[in-house]
Each structure stands twice: as structure tokens, then as C-alpha cells.
Amino acid sequence: MRSAIIITLALVAVAAAANVHKAKRHGEINPLLVQQILTKRPIAPPASGKSNPSGRLVVENFFTTRVDHFNAQNTDEWTLQYYSAPDNYREGGPILIFLSGNLPIRTDMVDDSSLMYELGRELHGAVYAFESRFFGQSWVTNDVSTENLHLLNSDQILADLAEFVQYLKGAVLRNEHAHVLVAGSGYGGALATWFRVRYPHLADAAWSSSGFHHAVPNFQQFAEAWGQTLIDFGGQRCYNDIFVAFHVIENLLDMGLADVVSERFNLCTPIDVEDSLQVQYFLAGLMSTVELFTLVNGNVSDFAVVCDEITNSQASSTLDALAQWFTSKVSMGEECINLDIDLTIDALREVEWNATLNQYGIRQTLYQECTEFGWFPTTTDSDHQPFGNRISLDLYTETCRRVFGDWITHDSLEYSTQRANNRFGGKLPAIQQAHFTFGAEDPTRPISITHDLNPMALADAIPGAIHASDLRATSDSDSEELRATKEHMKLLVSKYLFPVSPRVSVEDA
């Protein structure tokens, strides 16, 4: 490996003499890339990107609740958005609520393309998509200033949900004894678990798909788990090429050849090696781009696609192969690629709702990660991933500090994550009548619940699957293992909801 790095360095150094980095205009900030770098949140369109391709009845509704559930002196109210798919409901049927977590709600969360709708059809239930405060169209305050974001935390969201459940039971279905399932994926899956823990009298069952349960500041396991999946589905050669390219980049920067790297990757702003955060942000952006294109479709076959494009390149070196692939994917028609952390921070400081990053919920998600969960992907303490060893927790804590205030430090982040685990139980919550599913190849699996907690809280791994692969309705294209996981979830949930006399499916009725 060392010889490959030295050879590549020599080739690049020779070419460097002919390359002078030219001044370029700033390209547009790519919100999906910023989202992947800073939050590792699943890909989602802005709140305005709504669609209902199936044509089934999905109704937009609004529900009014308290701005602050924990301050009796504040009686202000706000209105959250939710979707309903009630066409399968029969009297006595359950309430099935999908929690969008830190994503805007979409109709496909509850229409007939979803497993939630399929479950509602079989149990004669009413299905709902619940949008968390500060995301999508659920605007609690006039803007998303740091002063207002103190109202964004898991406890407030769970309290919103508690009132929403009571509202559905009383005002909508008029059945105070209706059985309730809460479900979600990622952060939404964690919220479902935590709601069952904190409000067991309001939820009879919980289903968490690839839930983010364990708070941790330094999430180096993400790159490690991703790297193992890369080897399994993309090949060892691909892993080695990415490993070599990243180490070549680090060595070039150490040698004072930052202009070579900046030119190769067509950056709008040349890398300043004296600015550690700028260096780390570039490396994090490159790492996140590679990860993004292997994960965006939720299919492990994308690992082979990306690897084929990189390893079979006609470029003269592994560095050039990665650079050519990167620029082809990220340029977006711009003259150059914007990976300037200062401009990104300026964009994250925007507080108006119509600011691009706020429409995507990136500022809001970052705030929760800075104050509750961490989950920041680093590489400094791990040799078991291909992305070098320069991306440290400093990149993220300093970004948090510059965006939200000097009160955010390493110590505050450590305290916040410990508090979150203490409140909700981390990967060992005290819970029954809950079910956990996760993709065996999902890089986020180190923060998910992946083992049975007790006979009434089981976990199913889905072989060959990535994040939340079991949210879609049962399909002929499902693998045998995926189909079995979906059937097991539906069986357990029906027993949790109706332990005495489980409801039968429509086909058997």
C-alpha cells in the first residue's frame, strides 16, 4: 500500500508543475451534500416536494397544540401538519401513526405504496403521517433563530405526539379506547421507541425501522460499517483505491501541494492548509459524496456501480480516478465545486423559513445533533475505514459553535448525548410491545437496536439491506428475507395491538 501511495505521489508531483489553480467564481452550495456531510440524514426533498403517485386518498390536515408543553406561563399555540389515509378504517380499528422524524412528511409515507398502509388495510386501521415541529410546513415560530430553536427537542416533539394521539382518539375517531401503533425510521424510529417508553398508556405498540437510538458525539463507526459493506458489495480493490486516493490527498496537503488537490477536484476556493476546518470540510465532503452515491437509492448494488466507475477509470492514478468521478457527480453544471466551510456556515446562519437549507431542515437537524445526539462521522481514531484520519470531532463542534453560539463545546456535546441516553435508554430502553428492524448492511446500524431486548421487544436483521428497506409495501421484487421481515413485523404488531383477539386480514374476513 505504501509503495502505491509513493508512486501516485510522484506522478501527481510531476503533473503539478503544469497546474496553476486559477481564481474561480463561487459555485452554488449543494444542500444534499451539506446534509450528508453534517447530518448523515436520509435523503429527502424540500417540504414543497409533495406527490401521491398512487392516487389513493391521502388528506392534508392540521392540528393545533401548545408551543411549549413544559412552561405553564406560555399558553401560545401553533399548528402542525399531518396526512391521513382513512379509507380502510372500520369501527374498532387501530390508529397507525408514522413519525417523519427530522424529515418533512410525504404522502408516500402513508399511501398504498407503504407498508403502513398495507398494515392499515389488513387491520382496518386509520393511517397517519405525523410531522415533527420545525420541519416541513410545521412552523412553530416566526423563524428558526437560535433563540427559537430551544423549542426544538425530542421531549417537545413527544409531547406534541401525545396530544395528537388524544386528539385522534377523541375528536377524529371518537373512540377513547382505540389501539395505537407508532412507527418510524431513523430519528423517527427512535421517536416511536421513546414514545412507547415515555407514554405507554397512549401507544400500545412501536415499530422502529433502522432507528437512531444511541446518542454518541464521535460516530466513527459509520465509516467503518460503510467500509465493510463496500468490501462485501463493491470489492476489496475498490476499498484499496479509495484508501490510496485519500492518503495521497493527505500527503499532498502535508507536502504543501494544496493547489494540486484544489485543481484536481475543481474547487471554487483553494484549500488553505493553515485552516484545519477547511481541510477537514473538504475531506468530509469527498467522503460524504462517495457514501451518498452508494446509499441514495437504498440498494447495495449501487456499491458495485460506484466502484466500477472509480476502479475502471482510464485515469493515470487513483487520485485522478477519484477526482474525475467526484467532479462528474457534484459539478451540477457549475463552473466549480463549492466546498467552502465559511460559505456553508453563512448559509446555516440564515434564520428565515424560506432559506434553502432551512427548507431541507438541515439547520434544524444540525441543532438537534449539536444539542442532543451528536452522530458526527469522524475518521481520526479509526484505521478500519478508507477515508484517512483527518476528519475530527472539532470540525463539527466548531461548526455548531459558529452557527449557534459559543455555548456549544466538546463538553456540552458530551453532556447532551449522555443526557439523551439517560432519558431514553440508548440501545437498552425499558420497553415491551416494540419491534426493531434494521438493514444488515446499513452504516447507521451501530446506533440502532440490533438485538432482542426481551421476548416482547425483538429485533430482525434484513440481510443485504441498507437503511429502512422495509418501509415499502410488500412487492414481488422483495427478497425472501425482506418479505419474511415484513410479515414478522405485521404479525407481532397485530398481537401487540390486539393481544386477546387479533384482527384478521381483509382476505380472511
Q: Give me the oligomer status.
A: single chain
* Shape estimate: globular
Structural class: alpha/beta
Q: Specify the CATH class of the largest domain.
A: Alpha Beta
User: Any guess at the CATH architecture of the largest domain?
Assistant: 3-Layer(aba) Sandwich
- Output the helix-strand order: HHEEEHEHHEHEEHHHHHHHHHEHHEEH
State the total count of DSSP E strands.
10
How would you characterize the largest beta sheet? 8 strands, mixed
CATH topology-level name of the largest domain: Rossmann fold
Rg, alpha carbons: 24 Å
- Our count of domains comes out at 2
Topology:
Blueprint lengths: L1 H15 L14 H8 L20 E8 L10 E9 L9 E5 L15 H9 L2 E5 L15 H4 L4 H19 L7 E7 H12 L6 E7 L4 E3 L2 H13 L2 H19 L3 H7 L11 H20 L5 H11 L6 H13 L10 H8 L7 H4 L2 H12 E3 L16 H12 L5 H15 L9 E6 L17 E6 L17 H18 L12
Parallel strand pairs: 3-4, 3-5, 5-6, 6-9, 7-8, 9-10
Antiparallel strand pairs: 1-2, 2-4
